[in-house]
Design brief:
seven-stranded mixed β-barrel, 12 strands
């Protein structure tokens, strides 16, 4: 049976599409994921590589397409953190990439930050997402690979410097944790034997 672990909200680098600002609509287009593999670290698992599967079956787009917020550096404490929102229904998966249109705010308290995005001097974007399920592939002598097969983008953010893909916690506060299903992919006979024995002992106990 699958193992259940608990993970915080994760962050990944993304980008504004060059020259995509539409002045009449006050929108930009963003590529919010390419699914690239990145090295991560957790206190429980140590180092591992994380690969985001980018397909219609793997990515839950409901939150983005419901008008998810476009934030200032993942800020969630104030309405002034909101620089815009994802245009409803614009998030999609195409050619192995996640794409969306973002409507920028005209609010007075966001003018300076939005201006940098419009002129192209602030072009770094980050996506915050929850992981629901991973396939863990373990090969002796190598860093484990976590293929994220079920994940849910929650918000997009403008950031001054793209976040390190390995950064899971952005402050000293303990992050909120969410359940994630782990399905192990075993690539050698010894690993399969160990897994079968462990499962037998678990049932006997």
């Amino acid at each position: 049976m699958p193992e259940i672990i608990r993970l915080p909200k994760m962050l990944r680098d993304a980008e504004v599409r060059a020259g995509s600002f539409d002045e009449a609509a006050n929108t930009i287009e963003v590529i919010w994921t390419t699914g690239a593999t990145g090295r991560r670290y957790s206190w429980s698992d140590g180092e591992f590589d994380e690969e985001l599967v980018v397909s219609a079956n793997a990515v839950r787009l409901d939150r983005l397409n419901a008008g998810a917020p476009f934030l200032d550096t993942h800020g969630t404490w104030s309405l002034t953190d909101i620089l815009g929102s994802v245009v409803r229904g614009s998030a999609k998966i195409s050619g192995g990439k996640g794409i969306a249109t973002v409507k920028l705010s005209n609010a007075a308290d966001a003018v300076d930050r939005v201006a940098r995005i419009k002129e192209g001097t602030a072009s770094n974007i980050s996506v915050g997402y929850r992981i629901h399920a991973v396939e863990r592939k373990e090969v002796d002598g190598k860093v484990p690979l976590h293929r994220v097969i079920d994940w849910e983008p929650w918000e997009l953010s403008a950031v001054p410097i793209p976040f390190d893909p390995g950064a899971q916690v952005r402050s000293g506060a303990a992050p909120e944790l969410f359940e994630c299903r782990v399905e192990r992919m075993l690539n050698n006979a010894n690993a399969r034997v160990r897994m079968n024995l462990a499962e037998r002992f678990r049932r006997l106990g």
